[in-house]
Design a protein that fits this description.
The chain is of the alpha+beta class. It has helices at residues 27-31, 36-46, 58-66, 93-97, 135-141, 144-150, 159-166, 172-179, 213-227, and strands spanning 12-14, 21-23, 48-51, 81-83, 115-122, 130-134, 154-158, 183-187, 189-191, 197-199, 205-208, 233-236, 243-247, 251-255, 265-270. Strand 1 and strand 2 (21-23) form a beta hairpin. The longest helix is centred in the C-terminal third of the chain and has 15 residues, at 213-227. The structure holds fe (ii) ion. Fe (ii) ion (FE2) binds at residues 99, 103, 105, 253.
Length: 278
């Protein structure tokens, strides 16, 4: 008798030329862990993967995330994080206001997060798409003059900079609280161990070190505008039960505005980052 080894292959189709792929495998295949290596390889080029209608329970989402890398619990020790602006859903509302603007998760930490996984539980009444951009593809599309100009440039990032996006005239104690998170000096171009390069931008980016402040603002805004433009952009319109995963080291994301009281709920899990931004 000959033993047969069942091998499950990843089945997928692109969403847009520079970003996104839809995964067609069943939930059972995803949970088996057999697809993890192929998922990791695919997401590096696509930035975002959509798994339609998994209807993952929280426990299933945790199990799936654990197949992808080193599972990273939340700061409070929980495995999952409820993303909602509804006061009835939890206490993170002010912090989440910053999620309406382009960013990557954990930019201010020693290691940014690796992969993030979201599953939709409650839809918004209006708005509330999650938008992504591929910062590998955007870097690749820059012309050679711009790539040469960016070489070696560093940017001072600060959490308090993002505060002014949603609270332009904060009380002083609110600003001081955000300032206690500290600042971080990061390259504008992240050269990954793979040799590929991505752009490091987002709402914590304050200024390019050593550059005239008007030129700095022009450069940072221009790059953000380019990197988030149509060719590199995907907006996911949620259905309940959809799961979406992004590579946090090669993308930025934001939530489109929505009714804060509507109960919109996404559950997030994540893996730890595997290399510092350098
Ligand atoms: Fe985020």
């Amino acid at each position: 008798m000959t033993a047969t080894v069942a091998t499950t292959k990843l089945r997928h189709e692109p969403i847009k030329p520079n970003i996104g792929a839809r995964i067609l495998n069943s939930k059972e295949e995803l949970l088996s862990g057999e697809l993890a290596a192929e998922i990791r390889e695919l997401i590096e080029s696509r930035g975002v993967l959509v798994f339609p209608q998994t209807h993952f329970t929280n426990a299933e989402q945790v199990a799936f995330t654990k197949t992808l890398g080193t599972f990273m619990p939340e700061g409070d020790g929980e495995d999952t994080y409820n993303i909602s602006l509804d006061p009835a859903m939890g206490a993170h509302r002010d912090y989440l206001k910053g999620s309406l603007f382009w960013h990557a998760d954990g930019t201010m930490n020693p290691l940014p997060i690796g992969y993030a996984v979201l599953t939709s539980k409650v839809l918004p009444t209006w708005g509330g798409n999650t938008e992504f951009c591929n910062t590998y593809a955007a870097y690749d599309a820059l012309d050679d003059d711009m790539k040469a100009r960016l070489e070696g440039l560093r940017v001072e990032h600060a959490a308090w900079r993002s505060l002014f996006y949603y609270d332009p005239e904060p009380a002083q104690e609110v600003l001081e609280g955000m300032m206690r998170i500290g600042t971080k000096n990061l390259p504008i171009v992240w050269t990954h161990r793979s040799g590929r390069k991505s752009l490091v931008l987002g709402c914590t980016a304050d200024h390019v070190v050593g550059m005239d402040w008007v030129e700095s603002a022009r450069l940072l805004n221009g790059l953000r505008d380019f990197a988030t433009s149509e060719p590199f952009h995907y907006a996911h319109e949620w259905s309940v039960g959809d799961t979406v995963m992004w590579d946090n080291s090669g993308t930025m994301h934001r939530a489109a505005p929505y009714d804060p009281a509507c109960g919109r709920l996404l559950v997030r899990t994540k893996t730890g980052g595997e290399e510092p931004i350098q």
